[in-house]
């Protein structure tokens, strides 16, 4: 089991997967509507709710900003594969593939964008990348429970398998085709690189096209989570009648 903290993350887990929540620890001094609502939802789902002192929450959350709530949850949701996702789609695939993103706040922010713009899954390598932990879940504000995060052993092999299933891989990198001009209507997997280093050579070679976000200011690049949001927004816009 592991701990989850923050109102958005805990509320999403209670709503989406109540059976995976074993206990809720809530700041006994909080009696606002938000705290009452999540406590009522948890109780209705048969989840034990424990009012505790703030110091106990601090210790449980490792002194992270817990907002007065910590949940004890199962280590992971049922395993989902890329094929599981693709086999159930009724619209062209929209995937996010992150090549070695190590900052948990960036991964959480990418998940928020994935949820906001209807991405069907987020794919990360198991090694040399951050997984979904409490920091990621809090930064994702609940999106870690709505967007499948699929950790794969071999990213290159997964990219090849996606291509075989008709998914068009677009690498987000400066100098590529302008985002304004790219065809974003078919099954797409957006491939974005790690902070500072960008896409690895093999990952770049496996992309079908490179697409760049036109910048008009003085900065030379964007944070990976910002780039993810822009690419997904543009894709969703291209698919909306």
Defining traits:
single chain; 241 residues; alpha/beta; 60s Ribosomal Protein L30, Chain: A; 2 domains; six-stranded parallel sheet; four-stranded mixed sheet; 10 strands
Tally of distinct domains:
2
Largest sheet: 6 strands, parallel
CATH architecture of the largest domain: 3-Layer(aba) Sandwich
CATH topology of the largest domain: Alpha/beta knot
Based on Cα principal axes, name the global outline: elongated
Supply the helix-strand structural class: alpha/beta
Q: Give the strand order, joined by hyphens, for the main sheet.
A: 7-6-5-9-8-10
Query: pLDDT under 50 segments (min length 5)?
Result: none
**Radius of gyration, taken over Cα atoms and rounded to an integer in Å:** 19 Å
Give the CATH class of the largest domain. Alpha Beta
Q: Give me the count of strands.
A: 10
Distance between the termini: 44 Å
Describe this structure in words.
There is one protein chain. The strands form 2 sheets. This protein has a 6-stranded parallel beta sheet with strand order 7-6-5-9-8-10. Helix 1 (about 5-15) runs parallel beside helix 2. It folds into 2 domains: about 1-75, 2-Layer Sandwich (60s Ribosomal Protein L30, Chain: A), CATH 3.30.1330.30; about 80-240, Alpha/beta knot (3-Layer(aba) Sandwich), CATH 3.40.1280. The mean pLDDT is about 85. It has 9 helices and 10 strands. The protein is of the alpha/beta class.
């Amino acid at each position: 089991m592991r701990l989850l903290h923050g109102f958005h993350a805990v509320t999403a887990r209670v709503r989406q997967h109540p059976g995976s929540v074993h206990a809720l620890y809530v700041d006994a001094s909080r009696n606002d509507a938000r705290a009452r609502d999540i406590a009522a939802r948890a109780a209705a789902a048969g989840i034990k709710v424990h009012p505790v002192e703030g110091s106990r929450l601090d210790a449980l959350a490792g002194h992270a900003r817990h907002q007065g709530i910590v949940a004890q949850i199962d280590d992971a949701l049922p395993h989902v594969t890329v094929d599981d996702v693709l086999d159930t789609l009724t619209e062209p695939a929209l995937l996010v593939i992150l090549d070695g993103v190590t900052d948990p706040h960036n991964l959480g922010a990418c998940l928020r964008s994935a949820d906001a713009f209807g991405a069907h899954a987020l794919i990360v390598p198991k090694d040399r990348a951050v997984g979904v932990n409490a920091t990621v879940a809090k930064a994702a504000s609940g999106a870690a429970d709505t967007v499948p995060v699929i950790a794969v052993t071999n990213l290159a092999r997964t990219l090849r398998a996606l291509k075989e299933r008709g998914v068009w891989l677009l690498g987000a990198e400066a100098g590529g085709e302008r985002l304004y001009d790219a065809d974003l209507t078919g099954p797409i997997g957006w491939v974005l690189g790690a902070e500072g280093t960008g896409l690895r050579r093999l990952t770049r070679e496996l992309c079908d096209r490179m697409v760049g976000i036109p910048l008009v200011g003085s900065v030379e690049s964007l944070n990976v989570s910002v780039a993810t949001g822009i690419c997904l927004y543009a894709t969703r816009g291209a698919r909306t009648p």
